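Let's sit down with a protein and look at its sequence and fold side by side. Go ahead whenever you are ready, and we will take it from there.
>
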Amino acid sequence: MINLDDIRRHAAGCPGGVALTDGEKRLTWQEFAEAVERVAAGLARRIPRQGPVRSVFLADRGWELVVVMAACATLGVSCTGLDPAADTDRLTHVLDRLEPSLVFTSGAHRPVLDRCLWPAGSQALHILLDGPVTERTPGQRTGPCLVGLPELLDTPPLTELPDARPYESFAMAPDHDLTRVAVRRTPGEQRQLVDLVDEFGFDSTDVHLLAAPLWQQTAQDLTRAMLVLGARVVIGPEQDPAALAATLRTARATTGVIAPTTLSELLAHPDSAGLADTGRLRCLVTPGRHVGRWVVNAAWERLGPALHLAHCSPETGLTGIMTPEESLVVPMRSARPTLGNTVVVLTEHDEAAAPGVTGRVAVAGTRVMDGYLDDDGPRRFLSLDIGQGEQRFLVTGELGHLDEQSRLVVTDRAGGAPLLERDTAVDAALLRLEADLLNLPCLRDTAVMRVNHPELGDSLVVPFVAVAVGREATGVKALTATCARRLPSLATHVLAVDDIPYSPTGRIRETELLDAVVPIIALNLQLEQSMHQEMSS
């Protein structure tokens, strides 16, 4: 996040200019500087002066979170976001690995953290962002390890900045069995800022909409870049598409980052109609891993040519982009490498493959991780020279190819298993099937999941969101026919749902989705079986 030196620079140049807008709350650059200075002073008095100090946050986005993240950046303390939808075991695993000295949270998320028991938890300082600590109830943290943000804001300002600490930054990297922690120990923010400005034309006159959680790496990187440039950041309301549409109109946002679910809800809401005519939005970034044709077409109609589909991950950061014009004509799950990143496809001999040849995707860039923290999980780095000097590439868990225009087209999820050990024909067919379904005009969103369930057997579970109320029956017929054509060897269970749950990085929360739909499918099968038995008797 932005540090105090950069905030003071903007405050000196335009002290009355607005830096942050969060609903009715507005912080000028001068007020922003004073808040960060006091919070940094309050934290500095409570943490060791030397040695590694780490912080985490489990809180909704808001001006308070931006202030404490800027204070941590000023002190040289890493600030890692936790996914509030992660289960207790995953969160505890991350906290145990990081051993944070500072934990920022809100009243809504405090119970989640209180269920996480990690060895250093009792010594960590817990800061409540959304109010003073006035009451203590059983099970909540007590004593000097819990303070409210107002208490930090009352701290006298710093007389001098502390000595610099060794750089480190972390990101949560969800996996099937656990959540790993990706670590970077080489700062790349300045190089990334230059690349983002060259890529998107960001400048200090922009108004940036933050409609994605700050624990998501791309949301954090873009917000940091806009603040460093001196642009105004507008924090969008959560889970309220009507209010978000109103914010887009009144704030006249020019750029933004938005979570996939939030984008889908906004486009489906009638208040988003006409935003293209009233706003100045030119660049809205969202993870594009599962974005379908309906979202692309609706965004063009309602927002204008603004939606940029991002290819990103916690391990690599923002590595690729698909512009609004490209998304209308090129296959979904494509991306052109962004400036500062190099993408290659590897042959089985770890050489750069020719265009059109499918292989492992490898990425080099300023935001590629150095490894996983205290974890020996599968990771692989290669040093290659593809005409730009020797570069260090991270071999990812994706398969794909580069087209004639050097765009990456992702064709499969390789995961950590060797390619020859997987049922590659079925894996590739599943990805093609999902792409086919997302192009159907009768649905807004879908997911294709292969399960091996006691009652369903080895089969496909395909929940979908219909394009409109009353179109569910049409969707079931169309999806069932497409699945039978693409994968006739597997039984398919198609079910209409209200929404598909996503993480802010664009990954479908498969466990949550399966827990919701499998019991319904099993019950429907039992009812059908009972009806057949009654008819036959």
